[in-house]
Amino acid sequence: MLEVKNVKRSFKSGDVTVNAVDDVSFKVPEGQFASIIGKSGSGKSTLLSLLGALDKPSSGSIEVDGKDIAKMHDHALISYRCQKIGFVFQSYNLVPNLTALENVILPMEFAGLGKKERLERGKKLLAQVGLTEDQMDRKPGKLSGGQQQRVSIARALANKPKVILADEPTGNLDSQTGKMVFDLLHDLARSENTTIITVTHDLSIAGKTDRTFQLIDGKLTEYKK
Amino acid sequence: MNVVTRGIRNAFRNQIRTFSIVVILGLSVGLALAMLVARQAVTDKISSVKSSVGNTVSVSPAGARGFEGGGTALTTAQIAKLATLANVTSVDSTLSDRLTTSNSNLASAVDAGSLGQRFAQNNGTSFSGGEFQGQRPSGATSGTSDSETPVMRTFTPPVTVVGTTSPTKLSSSVGGGSFTLKSGKTFSATSTENVAVIGSSLATKNNLKVGSTFTAYNTSITVIGTFDAGNSFSNNQVLMPLATVQKLSDQAGAVTSATIHVNSIDNVATVTTAATSSLGSAADVTNDSAAAESSVAPLENIQTISLYSLIGAVTAGAVIILLTMIMIVRERRREIGVIKAIGASNIKVMLQFASEAVTFTILGAVIGIIFGLVAGNPITKLLVNNSTSAATTATTMGGPGGFGGRGGGRALRSLGSNFSTISASVGWDIILYGLGVAIIIAIIGSGLASFFIAKIRPAEVMRAE
Questions:
Q1: Is the pLDDT at B266 greater than 60, yes or no?
Q2: Confidence label for B418 from pLDDT (cuts 50, 70 and 90)
Q3: How far B329 CA lies from chain A's nearest CA (Å)?
Q4: Quick one: CA dihedral A129, A131, A133, A136, positive or negative?
Q5: Which of the residue ranges A48-62, B152-166, B286-300, B383-397 would you say has the lowest mean pLDDT?
Q6: What is the structure's pLDDT at B148?
Q7: In chain B, which residues have their Cβ closer than 8 Å to the Cβ of A155?
Q8: pLDDT confidence of residue A109
Q9: A89 touches B at CB < 8 Å
C-alpha cells in the first residue's frame, strides 16, 4: 500500500515560492497500476521524485508499507530506494559501458546479493522481459530503444520492489513498441503484485491503467473514466 | 563486478582521453622521480663530503703553517683552555721539530732529488748541510750566515720529529696519513719517557727495530714501535711524547699545532669561533668544514631545486588528475544520479571514481617509473655539471697546500672533483616512492571530485528527463 497524505513540495524562485506539489493525497493499493497525467510543468516529475525518495516533501507524509519515507534519514532512504523502489525512465538511463545483464545486476549488487544469485536472477529477469542470451551481453548502444526500455524494466524489478515508478516509459518509443512495453508493465503488476505508478502524456495508455490521476498546477485529482 | 572493477573499467571508456591523461601523468610522475633520485644522490654526496671533512678544528701559531712562515709557538696553557670550550671532546697537541746531523745519528730515508737540489742549482748556494738540515721553528741559526760563504753542498731532506699527545693520529700539518702500527707499541699522551715510534722507512734506512736506540738531541732514545702512514713523508718521521720533545729541544710548554675534536660537525663553526676568541691574534684557527660548506653549496642549491621541482611535479600531477576527475564527474552527472537512484550510496560512487583515478595514476606511475629509471641519472649529472664551475671556484680557493702546509687546498679540490662522480641509482625504494606519489596524486585528485559526487542529488536525474 502506498499512501500519500497532504504532501507539499515548494521551491524558492527568487522572491517567489512555487508549490510544485500542492497538498496531494491519494492511496494506491498493492498490485494496482496507476497513471498520472498532466501538462509539462504540472509537477509530475516532482511528485514521482517524492514517491521514489529522491527528494523530500516540504510537508506531509508518504507511507509505504506503513513507513513514512518523509521522516527517514539519508542512509535509510538509500536502503529504501534500493529495496522498495524500481525506476523506469523515459530515456532508459542505462550505464553505457555495462552490458544489459550488468545493468540489471547493478541494483542487486547495491542490495548485497551474492554474485551467483545476481547472475541467475539477472538472466531470468532479462528473459522475462524478452531479451535473448545474445542481447544480454550487449551494451545499451547495441540495443534498440524498446530493448533498452525492457532492460530498464528488468533493472527496476531486480530487487523485487514494492513500487515501480515509471516516468514516461513509452515517451521515446514508437506506438507499437510503446504498447509492448506498457503491456509488459501491466503483466508485471499482475504477476509480481507490484504497485506501478506511471507518468504519461499518452491518454490511450493512461486509459488502460487501473486508475488515473490528473495533476494541474501541483494539485492532484483522480481522473474519472 | 564490484565498484572497484567498475571504476577500473570506466578508466578505459574513452581510450584517447585515457592515453593522453596517462602520458601527461607519466611525465609528471617521472619528473618527480627524477628529482627525487637527484635529490637523494646529492644529499648522499653532501653527507659524504661533510663526513670526510670530519669534526675537527685546526689551530696553529699565527703566521705559521708546518715549517713555513713564522710567528710564536703556542703554549700548553693556551691549549688547555681550548679543551674546556663547549662541545670540545678532546684536543691533540703537537710540537714539530727537525733533527740535525749535529744532534742526531738518524739518516733521512728520503732522497733529496731534483726538488731538494733546486735552490742550490739556481743560486749557487745551499743550506749549511753539514751542520743543519733544516730550520727550527724559532731560535734557530739563521740561514743567511751560511750564505755568506757560498759553496755547493748536498741537501738532505730532514728527519722530522713530532712530539704529540696522540701518537696514533698523524698531524696533517706535517704530512698526515693513516697511522698503522707495524710493530711494538705506542706511548701514552702524558708520557715523559725518552721513547719513540718511528716511521717504517726511517726504521729500514737506519736498521732500527723495537728495542733499538738512536740519538736525538744528543740523548739516547729507545724505539718502542714502528708505524706505516701510507706516505713516504710521514714514514720518515719520529713520533715522541710531547713533553719529551719540549724538554729535549729546550721548548718548554711550546706547541706548534693542535687539533680540536668537536662532538658534532654541526658545532664545528661554533667551536672555531670560540677557539679564535680564546686565542685571539696568537693563533690561526681554521676548519675544513667551512670550506667544505662553500664547496658543497652548489650541491645544496641542486638539493633545493630538486625539492621544489619534486613538489611542483607532484602538484602538477594532482592538478591534472583533479581537473580530469572533475570533468568526468560533470560529464557523468546523470549517470551518477541514476546509480544513486537505484540504491548506490555516496561512498560506493566515490569509491568507484577513486578507483578510476587510481587506475589513471598507476598507469601514469608505470610510465613515470620507466621515465625516472631512464632519465634519473642523466638529469642528476646535468644538474651537477651545470654547478661544477661554481664548485670548482669554491674549491680552488681552499687553504695552502705547499710543503709542510695543511693540505686544505688539495683536500677541497678533491672534494670538488668528487662532484663529477655523483651517480644516481634507482632502487626499489624509488619505485615504491613512485607508486606512493601516484596514490597521493590520486587521493588529492579525486578529493574534490568526491565532493561534487556527494553534492549530486538523485532527483536531478528526474529533472533532466
A1: yes
A2: low
A3: 14
A4: negative
A5: B383-397
A6: 52
A7: 342
A8: 93
A9: yes
The nearest alpha carbon in chain B to A90 belongs to: B465
- pLDDT, position B140: 40
Distance (Å, rounded) from C-alpha B141 to C-alpha B261?
35
Of all residues in chain A, the one with the smallest CA distance to B460 is A54
The complex's ipTM works out to 0.90
Separation of alpha carbons B154 and B148, rounded Å: 17
Secondary structure of chain B in HEC code, one letter for each residue: CCHHHHHHHHCCCCHHHHHHHHHHHHHHHHHHHHHHHHHHHHHHHHHHHHHHHCCEEEEEECCEECCEECCCCEEHHHHHHHHCCCCEEEEEEEEEEEECCCCCCCCCCCCCHHHHHHHHHHHCCCCCCCCCCCCCCCCCCCHHHHHCCCCCCCCCCCEEEEEECCCCCCCHHHCCCCCEEEEECCCCCCCCCCEEEEEHHHHHHCCCCCCCEEEECCEEEEEEEEEECCCCCHHHEEEEEHHHHHHHCCCCCEECEEEEEECCHHHHHHHHHHHHHHHHHHEEEECHHHHHHHHHHHHHHHHHHHHHHHHHHHHHHHHHHHHHHHHHHHHCHHHHHHHHHCCCCHHHHHHHHHHHHHHHHHHHHHHHHHHHHHHHHHHHHHHHHHHHHHHHHHHHCCCCCCCCCCCHHHHHHHHHHHHHHCCCCCCHHHHHHHHHHHHHHHHHHHHHHHHHHHHCCCCHHHHCC
A-B CB pairs within 8 A amount to 71
Query: CA B431 → CA B320, B365, B368, distances in Å?
Result: 21, 9, 10
- Pull the grid cell for residue A169: 516509459
Q: What is the pLDDT of residues B108-118, one digit of tens each?
A: 888 877 776 77
pTM, entire model: 0.62
Q: What angle do CA B356, B361, B364 make, to 5 degrees?
A: 130
| Spatial CB neighbours of A206, under 8 Å, sequence gap ≥ 6 | A35, A37, A200, A212, A223
Q: Where are the domains of chain A?
A: 94-144+152-160
Angle at Cα B76 formed by Cα B75 and Cα B82, nearest 5°? 100
Interface check for A92 against chain B (CB to CB < 8 A): the answer is no
Nearest to A91 among B457, B458, B465 (CB): B465
Q: Chain B residues with CB-CB distance to A under 8 A? A: 1-2, 6, 9-10, 13, 334-335, 338-345, 348, 457-459, 461-463, 465
Give the three-state DSSP class for A203. Answer: helix
Closest of B360, B362, B351, B359 to residue B432, by C-alpha = B362
Question: Cβ contacts (< 8 Å) between B465 and chain A: which residues?
Answer: 45, 89-91, 167-168
Task: Report the alpha-carbon angle A47-A48-A49, nearest 5.
Answer: 90
User: Based on C-alpha coordinates, what's the Rg of chain B?
Assistant: 35
**B342/A91 CB distance under 8 A:** no
Choose, out of A75, A93, A94, the residue to mutate when testing the contact with B (most B CBs < 10 Å): A93
**Cβ separation B345–A97 shorter than 8 A:** no
Give chain A positions within 8 Å (CB) of B8: none
